[in-house]
Amino acid sequence: MTSEEIFDNLVRNALDFLNRALDELEGHPKYALIDFAAAVELVFKSRLVLVAPMWVADEPTEATPERFAQGKLRTVGLELAKRRIESLTTETIEPDAFKVFQAISRHRNRVVHFFHGELSSASQRQAVAGEIYVGWYHLYRLVTGPWGKHYAAYSKPISEFGARLQSLAPFLQAVFDRVVKGNPAAGTYSDCPVCSFKSLDSATGDRYKSAACHVCGYVEPSHKAIQHGEEDFIASCAECGGYQTVLATGFGFKCSKCGQSFSDCITCEYCSEHWVGNADPDYGDYLSGCDYCDGAISRVKDD
Q1: Are residues 171 and 28 part of one domain?
Q2: What is the total count of domains within the chain?
Q3: How would you class 36 by CB atoms within 10 Å of its CB: exposed for 0-12, middle for 13-18, buried for 19 or more?
Q4: Phi–psi pair at 85, nearest 5 degrees
Q5: Gap between the Cα atoms of 283 and 126, Å rounded
Q6: Alpha-carbon distance 18 to 38, whole Å?
């Protein structure tokens, strides 16, 4: 199997997952999220294949043509794919875009490995629609911008998926009606560059966000804190389950969801996610990982 054949298979597989995500959203939002996260990961793998197929393998020395053809090769995840692309090429993935991809991937991990009954509710279906909308915004910019020359042959199915994305409009409209319509502050909102609703709020109260959309969840980052020498640090809270709700303060760390303060923060040795609120000394080690990854032990299980 040639590099071109592997690339083509990965891209077409990614397109299949993208379209299936839209098919599943109404009846099975959990699978819509899983499918979209898989599509993002496949796009990153396809770009890596163009460097050399061996780099898609978790262990490059295992990347034989036979293993590719048989589908028995253990391949890289999103984080490692990004690191390899940036170290093996002159390309960089925009940090803000990659944070969106990471959030979708970690949400997928929670759905797959932990109970997430809330995804059956209407509001959660709307939230998944927003994640897909913002995720596609960044993925589209990547495959038609810096990576455009590699994906030009797929411009037709890419455009067709973009057109299909309009099927999410009722979900987003429902969010607008529920959250923005009738809100006294809505008069100060501007048009969101992603979903086009007049729902972009610049009064975030967050030093890392210059604006945030109340409909699709798009965030415009603020670089003021970084310019003043502060770290762009954010962590998740194991105490309440808040995802990236913890900011560093002058006295430790504080979760904006549950309001608790913490003196210590750990970093998962496997996926690099920052965590507070877990007293288990083995939590976040390389083998067992954290709530948002399986750790290296998952690779052993695959064998």
Answers
A1: yes
A2: 3
A3: buried
A4: -60, -45
A5: 32
A6: 8
C-alpha span between 60 and 193 (Å, rounded): 40
Domain that includes residue 260, residue range: 233-303
Give me the amino acid identity at 248. A
Domain endpoint, select from 150, 175, 200:
175
SS3 115: coil
Q: DSSP assignment, residue 78?
A: H
Q: Is the dihedral of CA 11, 16, 17, 18 positive or negative?
A: positive
Q: Model confidence over 50-80: pLDDT tens digits?
A: 999 899 988 887 777 777 766 777 889 999 9
Do β-strands 274-276 and 236-237 pair in parallel, antiparallel, or remain unpaired? Answer: parallel
Same domain, 9 and 125: yes
User: Does one domain contain both 125 and 265?
Assistant: no
Question: What are the pLDDT digits (tens) for 239-277?
Answer: 888 877 787 665 567 787 788 888 778 888 877 788 888
CA 129 to chain centroid: 13
